[in-house]
Amino acid sequence: VGMGGAAFPSHVKLTIPEGKHVDTLLINGVECEPYLTADHRIMLEKPNEILVGIRILMKALGVPRAIIGIEDNKHDAIELFEKLLGGQTAISVAALKVQYPQGGEKQLIQAVLNREVPSGGLPADVGVIVHNVATTFAVYEAVQKRKPLIERVVTVTGKDVKTPSNFLVRIGTPVIDLLNAAGGVPEDAGKIISGGPT
After folding, report:
1. How would you class 89 by CB atoms within 10 Å of its CB: exposed for 0-12, middle for 13-18, buried for 19 or more?
2. N or C end: fewer C-beta atoms under 10 angstroms in the chain?
3. C-alpha angle with apex 143: 133 to 67, nearest 5 degrees?
4. Coil, strand or helix: which one is 18?
């Protein structure tokens, strides 16, 4: 599955429906929820690997261009990718105004390409396939390193969390282990939310 918020099956996105023409691969570097920073961290720590993953996806889809959408409050990630791309045209960066829920793929397509996915439709209906940056990194690891998907980056944060952090964790790690690694559950915590506040 994809590593974004919806966990949509990635292999389905790589099978373009008959009669559809896709011209753009859109890489989602926008967090799906306001308090998450996992995608930001992976962009800063694994940019070269993400670019290899993008090229693999472009080849698999047969598309001529890819655009990485990143919110403009992530200046460091935008500058890093622009530097690594060195002005090449096949892959580019789109700096986006911070606006929730822009991390949703239909909203991202509208913001970057000004194309509107029809109600009940899919991005392929407007010539686009969207993959999350973490999915793109997982594609790199699967193809280049023959590594199965066994881990992901998880954000643990909150108003009274002692050490808000992003952790690279094995899939199946108990949430209490993550909370303990971030300093424990705050005494006045009313609830623990998994996935985001909305």
Report:
1. exposed
2. C
3. 30
4. coil
- Cα–Cα–Cα angle for 59, 63, 69, nearest 5°? 100
**Which tokens in the block code for residue 181?**
């690694």
* Cα→Cα distances 96→2, 26, 73, 161, 187, Å: 22, 13, 9, 29, 37
The CA distances from residue 133 to 12, 20, 189, in Å, are: 17, 24, 31
Is the model's pLDDT at 198 over the cut of 60? Answer: no
Q: Give the number of residues written for the chain.
A: 198
Map tokens 């009669």 to a residue. Answer: 19
Q: Which two tokens stand for residue 108?
A: 């991202």
The pTM assigned to this predicted structure is: 0.93
Per-residue pLDDT at 3 exceeds 90: no
Residue 47 in 3-state DSSP?
Answer: helix
72-117: pLDDT as tens digits: 999 999 999 999 999 889 999 999 998 887 788 899 999 999 999 9
| 25 touches 65 (CB < 8 A) | yes
